[in-house]
Design goal:
By secondary structure, the chain is mainly α. Among the domains are: 62 residues; 165 residues, no CATH class; 43 residues, no CATH class. The protein is built from 23 helices and two strands. Strands 1-2 form a two-stranded antiparallel sheet. The longest helix has 40 residues. It is elongated, with a radius of gyration of 35 Å. 33% of the residues are buried.
């Protein structure tokens, strides 16, 4: 059993290390790691040292065999002493049978596992407030399949509960043929009772989230409010805190039953000892809060803000910003969270740039402050330097003062220069730096040099070819003569085709579709209709729900070439596939084709 227990917890620790290195770990990993490590030390060293697994050494306790007495022997000896020395009953120390203590130990260890599994499996997809319903629904239904009845999770938990009870009872060295059933009952009772207690507490907490949401909506006439969101965030944080407190309580309870003799001689009495005890408790609680709980609460807040950090609704972004600020207060020294804050400020500035220039400037200043703070915390993180470059590039782009624009553009360039020193193989940063030279600094020569270096770093990255293609499209539009225009056009087509040839993964189909549509439009503008047909036909396979756009473009090309049958076929197909708000435009195209028909 000792080997199995150690292997189990070692596997859990290794799994968490795997999560960390794969980049999918969360802050809660710290708690699991240290909790499992502590139990490993308890099982592998302390319990073994005290003879709880086989014939370990029992230091300061005499011969181990003195403890291997059956409950019947202990009870008979106690009865004998009571009959002979009833007047000294109060001075006799009552010690629980050894088998009972070991059975309780097994139950507590099992409850550690079952409580954690309950935290993972119990959820509230029905958004009900009844704890019993939440618990039963979580263990017996499949929410992603219309709550179809399935007892798989319940059977898994019951199997673990029974198997752990049998294993711990089988390895209980104080169990005899007379008390093994009682030992099994104690192990199952302790583990089942503690686990059910936590499961109901957790279910009640999940129901509290819904209760809070209902109350806040009633107070705001059904409308979403920041106070309601923050109240739910507090409830969600308390759900996790409850789990941690319960887990720590189980570990302390485990410590209580590891020591078989709690006689008065092991205590130091007096005011100093009690003061020291409370000081240790206070310091430990503070350390747990600041080093573990607060950062996890911050992580919860930042995850909670994610649904609001999308789209172009400034109110939603303001909600996200306020939640981010709450999370940042929990973990002000975690540089990663400042990235979210800076992004929220930047998005609000973008949405308000035409409506409220003053507020836009304030948001940009705050974004710069937060990103500089993140950079000061972790100066070797390329993301912070690159984001400062992007911030100043955006700021320069919306500035109406030429001097300020030039100053901000140069600051952006300086940050890009630092970023590529930190990550010299990051072609995305090299490409962004080149675009800055093309668009704001107006130094196309330097921009082309940077793109040439980017191709040396990664000749297979399609984004670099697309930027070069777009540069030559603009060059063709500004060409002073027809020959220069044609040369620039040919280079743009060549770079588009080269970039498209490097897109090979299915996940990049949307990018490939965009490049093909840009290339097809370019070819149409320069009268290269046959090449445009080939390009658009290539886009049909990656267009997905945008296929109507490709069909519309092909219909217009065939109409221009006089192939009315092909034009009509593509136009009708585009009408079928197009969304309702685009159908009038395609109907107008069909009418043009019909007018051109003889």
């Amino acid at each position: 059993l000792r080997a199995l227990t150690l292997m189990m917890f070692l596997s859990a620790i290794i799994s968490h290390f795997g999560e960390i290195h794969l980049g999918i770990a969360i802050a809660a990993t710290r708690l699991h790691f240290w909790a499992f490590t502590g139990v490993m030390i308890t099982v592998g060293y302390l319990m073994t040292k005290r003879g709880l697994y086989g014939d370990g050494l029992l230091e300061d306790e005499g011969d181990a065999s003195n403890l291997d007495v059956s409950s019947d022997a202990i009870e008979s000896k106690t009865l004998s002493k009571k009959s002979k020395r009833s007047s000294r009953r109060s001075s006799v120390k009552v010690i629980n049978p050894e088998w009972q203590r070991l059975a309780i130990l097994g139950g507590i260890v099992t409850s550690l596992l079952l409580s954690t599994l309950g935290f993972d499996f119990i959820s509230n997809p029905k958004r009900t407030i009844n704890a019993g319903e939440i618990l039963w629904t979580s263990l017996t239904t499949l929410p992603n399949k219309d709550f179809q009845v399935s007892y798989g999770i319940l059977v898994l938990l019951l199997t673990l509960w029974l198997a752990a009870g049998v294993l711990f009872t089988a390895e209980n060295r104080a169990v005899t043929h007379k008390n093994w059933l009682a030992a099994l009952g104690v192990t199952l009772g302790v583990s089942g009772g503690l686990s059910l207690l936590y499961w109901f507490i957790h279910s009640f907490g999940l129901g509290g989230l819904v209760r809070t949401a209902i109350i806040m909506q009633q107070n705001n006439n059904g409308a979403l409010s920041l106070d309601g969101i923050l109240a739910q965030a507090g409830e969600l944080e308390s759900v996790l805190t409850t789990y941690y407190v319960f887990l720590i309580g189980l570990v302390l309870l485990l410590a209580r039953y590891i020591v078989h003799d709690w006689s008065p001689r092991v205590f130091v009495r007096g005011g100093i000892s009690f003061a020291s005890l409370f000081a240790v408790i206070f310091v430990s609680a503070a350390l747990i809060n600041f080093t573990n709980l607060r950062v996890i609460h911050a992580d919860i807040d930042f995850k909670l803000a994610d649904p609001f950090a999308r789209g172009d609704d400034v109110t939603q972004w303001q909600y996200a910003l306020d939640i981010y600020q709450r999370g940042n207060e929990y973990a002000p020294t975690v540089d990663h969270y400042y990235l979210f804050l800076g992004r929220a400020y930047l998005e609000i500035a973008r949405l308000l740039q035409t409506q409220n220039p003053t507020e836009t400037q304030r948001m940009l200043e705050q974004a710069r402050f937060d990103l500089e703070r993140a950079q000061s915390i972790n100066p070797l993180n390329t993301d912070h330097t690159a984001n400062l470059a992007r911030l100043h590039r955006f700021w320069a782009g919306i500035s109406v003062d030429p001097n300020q624009r030039a100053e901000l553009a140069q600051l952006a360039s300086d940050y890009y220069a630092r970023a590529v020193v930190l990550s010299p193989n990051n072609v995305i940063i090299w490409n962004e730096w080149a675009v800055l030279y093309f668009s704001l600094i107006q130094d196309s020569g330097r921009g082309l040099e940077i793109l040439a270096h980017s191709l040396e770093v990664d000749p297979d990255f399609y984004g670099t070819y697309a930027i070069l293609a777009q540069y030559y499209v603009q060059t063709a539009q500004q060409a002073p003569d027809e020959i220069s225009q044609q040369n620039a056009y040919n280079q743009a087509v060549s770079y588009y085709q080269e970039g498209i040839s490097h897109i090979r993964k299915k996940r990049d189909d949307a990018t490939k579709y965009g490049y093909l549509m840009e290339l097809g439009g370019l070819q149409v503008n320069y009268g290269d209709f046959n090449a445009a047909i080939v390009t658009y036909e290539g886009a049909l396979g990656v267009a997905n729900n945008q296929i109507w756009r490709v069909e519309d473009s092909l219909a217009r090309i065939y109409l221009e070439l006089g192939d009315l049958e092909s034009a009509k076929a593509y136009a009708n197909s585009a009408f079928i596939n197009a969304p309702d708000n685009q159908k009038p435009n395609i109907e107008a195209l069909i009418a043009l084709i019909q007018q051109a028909s003889p």
